[in-house]
Amino acid sequence: MTESPVFDTADTDRTLLIVEDDKAFLQRLARAMELRGFEVETAGSIAEGLARVDGRPPAYAVVDMRLGDGNGLDVVEHLRAKRPDARTVILTGYGNIATAVTAVKLGAVDYLSKPADADEVMRALLRSDDDRAAPPENPMSADRVRWEHIQRVYELCERNVSETARRLNMHRRTLQRILAKRAPR
């Protein structure tokens, strides 16, 4: 692992809000970002994140897409309204093009798949708008992307196999076999 730069916070606003409902991941990421020179506040829910934005809109935010009480895009949109210059990164375990496009339209500067490490998050937050993201070292396989899409639709259909199969134009038994298997690499 490479050593990360520590920033001089005297001349720039390094306030960072992390909205994540996985407590262990939230604590690790918060500590790592503090070591990288950010002044970190955390929130474990959408409601808590919105309250933090209302109290003191941060310069940076890292927001989980799916939280127990709603969609992280609500926090992104609210932050953009309160502080248009804020830079936000979305984290998700359920990568999908439609939500990535929506996140960027609402003001997110990047969209990272979990598990993302602190260096990736920092690079995404601080990258200039002219810089392009480097291609991933280990991109998901086509089988994994398909599996993630099926899992997402399954969750959106409230874990109803018949409705998910209908929406995916797939036979119900085929879907059941796919759901019973482990995720591909």
TrEMBL record:
Keyword Transmembrane helix: no
Matching Gene3D superfamilies: 3.40.50.2300, Homeodomain-like
Assigned keywords, A-Z: DNA-binding, Phosphoprotein, Transcription, Transcription regulation, Two-component regulatory system
Positions of modified residues (4-aspartylphosphate): D64
Example GO molecular function: DNA binding
One Pfam family from the record: Response_reg
Domain Response regulatory, chain residue ranges per copy: 15-129
Keyword DNA-binding in record: yes
Protein name per Swiss-Prot or TrEMBL: ActR/PrrA/RegA family redox response regulator transcription factor
